[in-house]
Amino acid sequence: MSVSNKSNTVIRALGSIETRMALFHGNLNGSTQGTQTIDFEADIDASTFYEAVNALYKKYVPLRCTIKREENELYFYRDADLNRIDVNYIEVNTIQEKDKIVRLALDDKIEASISLWKISLVKLKDQASYTLIFSAHHAIIDANGMHHIAQSFFDFIASKITGIHYFDDTEVDLPLAVDALLREQTFAPKTEHTIARDFDTACPLESRSTHWQQLKLDTVFMGKLNTQLAKDNIKFHSIVSAAMCIAMQKTQFIQTPFPFGTAVSLRFLQDSQPSYFNPLGCYMSIASNLIEGSELDVTQLAIKYDRALMHKIMTTCLTKSPIDINQVDAGTKQIATLHSFAQGVGITNMGDINIRSPHPSVLLTDYTMLANRVAGNFSIVAHCYAFNNVQTVSLVYPHPILAGEHVKEVVNEMRLLLEDYCAQANTNNSLHNTPTVPA
Length: 439
Prior knowledge:
Blueprint (H helix, E strand, L loop, with lengths): L9 E4 L2 H12 L6 E8 L4 H14 L6 E5 L2 E5 L9 E6 L2 H13 L9 E8 L4 E8 L6 H20 L34 E2 L10 E9 L1 H14 L3 H15 L7 E8 L18 E8 L6 H20 L7 H11 L4 E2 L3 E8 L10 E9 L9 E7 L2 E10 L4 H20 L16
Parallel strand pairs: 5-6, 10-13, 13-15
Antiparallel strand pairs: 1-4, 2-7, 2-14, 3-4, 6-7, 8-12, 9-16, 10-11, 15-16
Helix pairs in contact: 1-8, 2-4, 5-9, 6-7, 6-9
C-alpha cells in the first residue's frame, strides 16, 4: 500500500482560522475533528479498498500532509507516510460491533504530526453491506472537503467494478488560507457577557465521549414544512435554529440571554474569487448571536435570527482576526479547566449531501456526519443535513458532562414546535408522518 513521497517539505504556514482549529484539536483531545459514515452495498474486497485509499492519497495533497510547530508558527508539511496512517479493513458480525467502531473513530484523536485523516471500511460478515468511516482534521478538511473525498472514493470503487472510467485522478493541491480575502478589522467587537450553563457532571477531558440524538424529518413532513417556509419567506436553517432556541427555553435547559453560535462557510466568497478556492480547505467561521428575552414565537424568532445572522456574517465573519499563537494556545488549554458551557449552543447546516453513486453497482444507503465535541465549550451543537430525501438534525453533545435526558427533552420539544409550525399550513389536517426520535 506504500506510495513514494519524496517531497518532505514545508508547504506553507497555517492561516488564522486553520491555526485556531489546529490548536483546538491539539489541546482539546481532537475536538472539532469530523467523522462521516456512509453505508453502502457493493461487491468489493479488501484489496479494492486499499487501492482506493492509495488513489485518494495520490490525488489529494492534504492527505499527504501533517502539521508541525516551529517556534511560534504552525506549518503544513508534505511528509505523511501512508504506512503510518490509520487505514483499516474490518469485518464484523453485528451492527452493534460496527457502531462501536464508529464511536471510537469519532473520539479517537488524529495526531496531526503523523497525518490529518484516517479511514476504515467495515464489512458485515456474509453480506455485501459496508460502512465507510472517514475522519479528518478540521484545520484543512471541512465537511465540503470530506464530501468531495467520499465522492472520489465511490467513483474509484465504481470504476473498479465496472471498468468504466469514473474516477478523476487530477491532483488537488493544498488550498490557500482564506485570510487574504478577509477585511482588516475596523471596529471593536462587542463583548457579550452571558450566563453559562454549568456541567451536569464533572469529568476530565480524557474521560469524555461524544454522544448524539437525532430528529429525522421524512419527505411528507418536509413537504408541509417547506410549504409554510415558502409562505413566510424563511430558510429551513432559520426555523430549526429558532425551534432549538425556544425548545431550550421551554425545557429550562439554559437561561436567557445565551450565545447561539452558527457555523458559517466562507466558501460563498468563491463566487468572486473562484481561482482562490479548491474543494478542500478550512473556510469556517462562527457567527455568535445573543438570544435574549423570552421570545417564544418560532416564526418571529426565525426572522429575527436570520437578519442578525446576516449582519454577523457581513461584519464579524468577514473580518480578519489577529492571532497570537501563544495566546490562542493558552486560551484553548484553559477551556479544558472550565466547569460550564461557556459558548452556549450552536448549529451547523450542511444542506443536501450531494454524494452520489456513479453506477447502480454501488448503492449508497445512509449517511451520518458528526464532530468530536468533548471540549465542552458548547453544550449542544446541531448538525443539519439531508440525504436520500431524509432531513436529519443531530444534536451532538459531550457525555457525561451533559446528561442525555436533557438533550432528549430538547429534541422532543423541537419536534413539537416544528409540528405546530407545519400545522399553520395544514390547520385541518393532522400530521401522520411526524419526526422521530430514536430511543
